[in-house]
Design a protein that fits this description.
This protein is of the alpha+beta class and 346 residues long. The protein folds into 2 domains: 1-53; 61-346, YerB-like (YerB-like fold). Helix content is 23%, strand content 29%. The chain has 4 helices and 23 strands. The strands form 5 sheets. Strands 1, 2, 3, 4, 5, 9, 15, 18, 19, 20 and 22 form an 11-stranded mixed β-sheet that branches. Strands 10, 11, 12, 13, 14 and 23 form a 6-stranded antiparallel β-sheet that branches. Strands 6-7 form a two-stranded antiparallel sheet. A hairpin with a 7-residue loop joins β19 (300-308) and β20 (316-319). The protein is globular, with a radius of gyration of 29 Å. The termini are far apart.
């Protein structure tokens, strides 16, 4: 009886071992199958949605944007660094001239300029981009508002001569330049924050935005004033717009390449003349509210609404149905011009 009991016990143990082995083998096979299915699903996802999985290139990382005031007097042409900016704002200043504010993020630019003085309404667009503000001098209103809003700024007039330098191939005041390296060193010395987790003002997407329902937009003419008219000509081969001002092609100071942009935004805002103690005809801008405009890319244009609720709040760009517009992954020029400007798009 005892031997019989031992045999039964051994048989049971063998059965248990075989059963456990079978379960383990089944689990290994299933895990392998599941892994293969998962890998295949990932491959299929890349194949079917690969465009969606791409990351936006024009605006990425946590480097804080740098906003630089750029001289746009014809004595300042050509300018340096504009093709490397992710956004450029153009707005009227005194005398019918326009001034530019170029925004850089996470890139090294050896020469930016010529750098010119601050105007207070440009601060609104520096704030909405969470940018450090770089300038060479300021108007009384800009000086006051920089203090009022505690804006991290670097003023070339107050610097020690290392952040900015003057070049010999242009005449003052159109010859002060800087670089991102010098700006960041100055920011570090001033203990300014150099990182940002703010999202972009524009809704960049990686898919190609073609605006099929838009109107043809191969030549865009924007008269900011009697003095300054800007024209953009579409380069169909490269899918960018070449920029002209006062009928002259705009080129980069260093490379000689034409200034180009992937996207153009036009906003119609009223400007007016300030009454200040200097009486130089400096301008103000009524940019709080909702304004008509256009979004232009890839040879097409659509009408949009541009809404800014406060000076330090992001502008919302929406189509006429109220949807936030999708913007091609590329640099953008924002031209803010008077409501009565005879803009032509053809």
């Amino acid at each position: 009886m005892k031997n019989k009991g031992v045999k039964i016990l051994i048989i049971l143990l063998i059965i248990l071992i075989l059963a456990a082995g079978g379960v383990l083998a089944y689990k290994i096979v299933k895990d392998k199958e599941n892994k293969e299915v998962s890998n295949q699903a990932e491959e299929n996802n890349v194949l079917t949605t690969g465009v969606e999985e791409k990351k936006v290139q024009i605006f990425q990382g946590n480097d804080r944007p740098i906003a630089v005031m750029i001289d746009n007097h014809n004595g300042a042409w050509p300018q340096a660094g504009l093709n490397q900016a992710y956004m450029v704002y153009e707005i009227i200043v005194e005398g019918g001239e326009t001034r530019l504010m170029a925004l850089f993020k996470g890139i090294d630019v050896d020469k930016i300029g010529p750098v010119r003085s601050a105007r207070h309404y440009f601060l609104d667009y520096a704030m909405e981009n969470d940018a450090m503000y770089i300038h060479f001098g300021w108007s009384p209103q800009a000086q006051s508002d920089i203090t009022k809003y505690s804006i991290h700024n670097i003023n070339g007039i107050a610097e020690d001569g290392t952040t900015f330098w003057r070049v010999k191939d242009k005449s003052a005041p159109h010859n002060a330049v800087t670089s991102t390296e010098k700006i960041l060193q100055s920011a570090k010395n001033k203990k300014y924050r150099t990182t940002s987790d703010e999202t972009s003002v524009l809704n960049y997407v990686t898919k190609e935005v073609n605006l099929e329902q838009g109107k043809n937009a191969e030549t865009i003419t924007i008269p900011h004033s009697d003095l300054q008219t800007v024209t953009y000509e579409y380069d169909q081969e490269n899918k960018v717009y070449k920029r002209y001002a006062r009928k002259k092609v705009q080129t980069d100071w260093e490379t000689g390449d034409p200034e180009t942009t992937k996207n153009i935004i036009i906003t119609f805002c009223e400007n007016y003349t300030l009454t200040d103690k200097e009486n130089k005809g400096r301008q103000g801008l009524k940019n709080i509210g909702t304004f008509d405009g256009y979004y232009i890319t890839n040879g097409k244009a659509i009408p949009i609404k541009c809404t800014k609720s406060a000076r330090d709040q992001k502008t919302k760009y929406q189509d006429l149905e109220g949807n936030e517009i999708e913007v091609n992954d590329g640099n953008t020029w924002v031209n803010i011009c008077p409501p009565n400007a005879q803009v032509t798009i053809e």
